[in-house]
Fold Glycosyltransferase.
Amino acid sequence: MKLSVSMITFQGAAYLKAQMDSILSQSIPVHEIIVCDDGSTDGTREILAAYAADYPQIQLRFNEKNLGTVANMQQCLRMTSGDVLFLADQDDVWLPTKVEKTLTFFQENPSAGAVFSNADIIDEVGETQYGMSLWDIIGFPYGQVELADFERRVDNVVTGAGLAFKRNEELLEKDIPQMPGLLHDGWIGLYFADKNQLEANPEKLFQYRSHANQQVGGKIKERQQLLDFNLALYDGVPVMKDFAIWKAAMKRLYTNLDLPYMDKAKIQEQIELYAEYGKTYFQLRACLFLFVKAIR
């Protein structure tokens, strides 16, 4: 079985060496590491060239013009030749048994076409942050929802940095649609969820780096609110604490309605429920406001 890693880079010099070293130090080595750089000028290309000179399994492509995240990852995936493809971010750190445990997961779950894992959150110097996992940050209610249904109706919870999938030529040949709210990891997640072949591995198999402008400190309450919001959408319960939340729910539902592989029938039902509930709710709020104003 041939194993491939697909990584895209852009201005990633600060943390790239730690990630490259972690991939090269796996308990089960990968056979090829494909890296596509999207026009870096910060020394990223020089770092990659030095690694490629020492490790023949590393193949590089330096884009002449900036393609953007989605198109760059698409070309990178198409350059792979492995039977199992691992996606990698330029600034994370893989734990030494990430590949080994992912392959074990596939062996124990033979119907799975793709699997994504959880991760610890680390800061710029590699220290674990706040005791929160990646799934806490993105509001994924693991164990409380049916994964394929949640992915196709509520929100994408597949993070590319933790994703691996069995080679699928149909998927690789398809062009990822250029749509708001859809990145390559969401596209892959929806594709396999639609086939009921998407699985989640709760093990933390890598360290997801949070940069200074992505700090999660002080946002624990916000993340709990996101989890509650996602569960409410999943359960079909109208979220009506205030107009802003209702509006956010409607925006999410309409965005999901346009994405490929979504369960459009169920989403449309939710939109109609929210619209009717919202109409009644805000009419009652308006009547209450006028009543209070009249008696003052």
